[in-house]
Fold each of these.
Amino acid sequence: MLHYGALKVATKRQKECAGAALQDVHARVCGLIEEYSPDAMAVENVFTALNMRTALRLAEMRGVILLAAAQHGVVVYSYAPREVKASVAGHGHADKRQMQLMVRALLSMNETPEPSDAADALAVALCHLQTEKARRRFGLPDQGSSVKPRALRATLGSTGLPNEIRPGGTTRGGLPRIVSTR
């Protein structure tokens, strides 16, 4: 881990103009992309069960982040909140505190990441790393790949599982392997 944190836009700045927070987020994300030159970015989908006002604000911020990534040619991967929670905490209903503790443990951090939004961002990154590891291990196409689902089924076999995995729970080596990307 190179860097983590959360951007807090001052209330005074937010009152200056309607787009001030969006402008600050865009500038910060562009600065981070230029500083660290990432190969990819992972973002969380907007959770639509929130109240409408919050969902719209999150969608605006997400759009600014996607814009910054596109302007710098960075590929973006998107994950559902439950997928992130399941990947990091083992189940899709983990609360914020559980996520913070799991992120701390998985990254061998001395302190619990604060604020919880920063821990959430780290959890999305961990989810992406785990998903990419599984994708590469099993030779699955990239999320942005042009392979069609029918061609993918033909590649993987009729069960939808890579040929090395047997539905009976054993692999060629005889021992069961469990891989979770959720």
Amino acid sequence: MCKLKVDGELLDRLKSLKLGFYGHTTRKYESLEKEIVQGCVPGYRNRGRQRRRWTDDIAEWTGMKINEVATAAEDRDHWRGILRDANPFYGGRH
């Protein structure tokens, strides 16, 4: 039972960090991090079952489409509200 609690806390912490980093990089004007996170890197994807993308987690946790998430992340206050809804334990920095 203790292990489940630790795993849940770890997942919640990971969500907070990942969503926070996404918002931070999305608000940057032009940066390599923003292009990488949003998947704007040129090239082809391999055949077969596609790997889970970083943005798939963001869309799943927020319950929004990825283009809606990117727009919402531009407004810091709105993004903090989304973080709180996606992760009840979010409280800024821990």
Amino acid sequence: MILLASGLQSAECHPIVELMERPIEVELPHKLGRDEAHRRIANNVHKLHNHIPGGAQVQSSWSGDRLNLDITAMGQTVAAQIDVEEAKVRCRVILPGMLAFFAGPIEAALNAKGGDLLLEDRSKKS
């Protein structure tokens, strides 16, 4: 609950909570071209839940070259967008207020391992 001049109000309804969201934006360069990068991401997105501590439920949908994700773990839902471009992939993750404290480690992990996870090609391996 939040105490306002007008009285108590649930934090779930208060606009201040929305301001606590923390966006993370990461660019992952590649030399695959747009179509190949799109194919690899589409082939790997189902593995995303394995890389989140405690597991997660991942819902995904494509709109052109944008992958929209809703990732639910530990009672929190994180929205993300992945835009596939000719020479890079742009990742935007919106952390809810409760997860904003973890923005630094999450951003570091995306920079370090994001390209490997998203752009890995297992189609040619036995």
Amino acid sequence: MLEGYLEIDGKDIPRTLLGTSPFIGAAHFGHRARLYLLDLYRNPEAMARVMVKSYDLGVRGIQLIPHPPVVEALQIARDQGFPMDIIATIRPESEKDDINLLSELDTSVMLVDPEITDQADWDSIGEKLDDIKDAGSLPGLITQFPFSTTQKLLDSPVLNDFKLYMIPLNRLGYLMDSDTYGPEERTQFKEIIEKMDKTIIAMHVLAAGIMTPDDAFDYLKTADFVDMVALGIASEAEAEESFSKLFKR
């Protein structure tokens, strides 16, 4: 499931991405975030080993959050002969610098951070999408509120200005803006996502580690509107379990 590449505006984009939120100790990992900062963020060699292992398993893309240690790890992996196509997030606090750096790294796709997307400031978002296109990358958006932000985007002036849309998605509805995520909500969600007519990247598929890969991927297989997936991986062992099971689906 989700092997190979998609062609988007002449660029071949890997369908499965190594997510890097564990590498930066993202807050949604709870008590594990501190451990990830100590074991991964402060140790680029350890992050590079996860990248290399993922590459060996067939993963050809990375959803890069361009903090300096993570970029250093990526360069280590590249220097060792394991190049990954970059689908990156531009961070709100350093957008211009990130775009310049990511352009130098030959980044295929740049995504506007959900902190910006979910504010629904269309003028600001439109400017950022233009900056991404000017840098030669495909533009996209990330949301942490896939129900409410998607509804807003459908009526927004930027709807035709981006190609990819990254959304949280898992069977539990965890880290999604819905009190429940039963059959009715799933049907509604599918309808609004399909109206977007974008290349959809699923994130938080494992619900920050709450779900097992088997359970997570069984649900993901039913979400036929998903074109790509990013899996946050914190170790070589996690990479082996998660990507092997994903590709066998």
